[in-house]
Design goal:
Layout: E1 4-10, H1 15-25, E2 31-38, H2 44-51, E3 56-58, H3 62-66, H4 71-84, E4 89-92, H5 101-104, E5 111-115, H6 127-137, E6 142-149, E7 159-166, H7 173-200
Parallel strand pairs: 1-2, 1-4, 2-3, 4-5
Antiparallel strand pairs: 5-6, 6-7
Helix pairs in contact: 1-7
The chain binds 5-O-phosphono-beta-D-ribofuranosylamine.
5-O-phosphono-beta-D-ribofuranosylamine binds next to helix 1 and strand 5.
């Protein structure tokens, strides 16, 4: 079978994108990233992609807002763009724009997201901060990471892989962030491998 084609959507630093690039280069992942798309021009992940000679596109929401277009129009055009790369799997790796049905329904079981918390916990932004805060005020002792299929509900959908992470009582927020990001990088690669092995080949 031809190599699996990935399209990765990012908004920021792109450390998860980098983990996928590295896994492909070190042959832990038998796939190609055919395109990286960002909704933020300054996203460092775009530089990471360019360094790896991957095609990139910047797709801002601003012009749609200025012309009174709906988010649906943005989502639908974005879906057309992603489809044009003929991906086997679309990976949301720190993509900070909520996608609606006009996008999601075009990629049934081909769209995955990484969430830095366990299923059902801390959906939306600042998940790590909120878990850390809960550990301080309510003695929450664990959080985690999940990679899941995307449905029309934020950070929900069938989990593909999950991993629990202990929050040490004296841990700083920065220490917890580093711990979680390290798990994310490993888990995202595992999730893609799992889908390749169980669903795509
Ligand atoms: C990650 O923590 C991801 O789970 C969250 O946003 C962050 C993106 O990090 N949705 P990066 O851009 O991959 O470094």
């Amino acid at each position: 079978m031809a190599r699996i084609r990935l399209v990765v959507l990012i908004s920021g630093n792109g450390s998860n994108l980098q983990a996928v690039i590295d896994a492909i280069e070190s042959r832990q992942l038998d796939a190609d990233i055919v395109s990286v798309i960002s909704n933020r021009k300054s996203a460092y992940g775009l530089t990471r992609a360019e360094n790896a000679k991957i095609q990139t596109t910047y797709v801002p929401l601003g012009p749609y807002r200025r012309h009174d277009c709906t988010r649906d129009a943005y989502d639908s055009d974005l879906a057309d763009l992603v489809k044009s790369f003929d991906p086997d799997l679309v990976v949301l790796a720190g993509w900070m724009h909520i996608l609606g049905p006009s996008f999601i329904n075009r990629f049934t079981r081909k769209l995955i997201n990484i969430h830095p918390a366990l299923p059902g916990y801390f959906p939306g932004i600042n998940s790590i901060e909120r878990a850390w805060y809960e550990s301080k005020i309510n003695k929450l002792s664990k959080t985690g990471v999940m990679v899941h299929y995307v449905v029309d509900e934020i950070d929900a959908g069938e989990p593909i892989v999950t991993e629990e992470i202990t929050i040490d009582p004296n841990e700083t927020l920065e220490e917890l962030k580093i711990k979680i990001h390290n798990v994310e990088h490993r888990l995202l690669v595992s999730a893609i491998n799992k889908i390749i092995n169980e669903e795509l080949t």
